[in-house]
Specification:
Elements: E1 2-8, H1 13-21, E2 28-35, H2 42-48, E3 53-55, H3 65-76, E4 83-86, H4 95-100, E5 105-109, H5 121-127, E6 132-139, E7 149-156, H6 163-185, E8 193-195
Parallel strand pairs: 1-2, 1-4, 2-3, 4-5, 7-8
Antiparallel strand pairs: 5-6, 6-7
This protein binds ligand NHR and glycinamide ribonucleotide.
Residues 8, 10-15, 42, 87-88, 90, 108-110, 119, 135, 171, 174 line the site of glycinamide ribonucleotide (GAR).
């Protein structure tokens, strides 16, 4: 059985979907939900699901990203995770952290990579006049949103879409895609999943 730590910063809807999927014959189980924000809504959801939680507040490490990441590692490693799943985690990670969990870390990003790495993906897709948007699950490497793609899902952009309406339709696809990818990643299958 693979052990999964999930890193969040916000509401944690992707985290909930991953955790809900990890039951029965699933090859993995959630062992920790960690947030860099003490007020992240996902923390209480994880507690309700009986998952251990931890907080490492990045504001306690002003300007010291490596100090923050060493504290993250110290909070995570006692749980002996085999896999780290970033799920709306909003801090860029340096090679200190990425190297420690090399090849064991996934992220869900709200764009069809390689388009729109980084932040404000939906506004950028609308600004560019794109006809579709979506999300990607990828392996985390030292380069931001650049690791091997493990799955992608697409949605059509509608004429009246705003960044918010688009984000909520993409989120529905994230909730389908991420559990499918994690289930396969846990048994070592990295063949990309393309939805729909
Ligand atoms: N780190 C590495 N090395 N590689 C990746 O692929 C990463 C990563 C860290 C986070 C998630 C990510 C995304 O899916 C992710 C992928 C935060 C930012 C950002 O600019 C960018 C991308 C992602 C997450 N964060 C600001 C920072 O200074 C803070 C923003 C905030 O706190 O709201 O870290 O897009
Ligand atoms: C998701 O849409 C995720 O793709 C995005 O944040 C949202 C988190 O929602 N991630 C990023 O923007 C990373 N930069 P959730 O907390 O409800 O899962």
């Amino acid at each position: 059985m693979k052990r999964v730590a999930i890193l969040i910063s916000g509401g944690g809807s992707n985290m909930v979907r991953l955790a809900e999927d990890m039951i029965g014959d699933h090859p993995a189980r959630p062992v920790l939900v960690l947030s860099n924000r003490p007020d992240a809504g996902g923390l209480s959801k994880a507690k309700k699901m009986g998952i251990a939680t931890a907080v490492v507040d990045h504001r306690d490490f002003k300007g010291d990203r490596e100090g923050f990441e060493k504290a993250l590692i110290s909070a995570i490693d006692p749980y002996e995770p085999d896999i780290l799943a970033l799920a709306g985690f909003m801090r860029i990670l340096t090679p200190v952290f990425v190297g420690h969990y090399q090849g064991r870390m996934l992220n869900i990003h709200p764009s069809i990579l390689p388009k729109y790495r980084g932040l404000h993906t939906h506004a950028r897709a609308l600004e560019a006049g794109d006809s579709e948007a979506g999300c990607s699950v990828h392996e985390v490497t030292a380069e931001l949103d650049d690791g091997p793609i493990l799955g992608q899902a697409r949605v059509e952009i509608e004429p009246n879409d705003t960044a918010d309406t688009l984000a909520s339709r993409v989120l529905v696809q994230e909730h389908k895609l991420y559990p499918m990818v994690l289930r396969r990643f846990a048994i070592g299958d990295k063949t990309p999943i393309l939805l729909p």
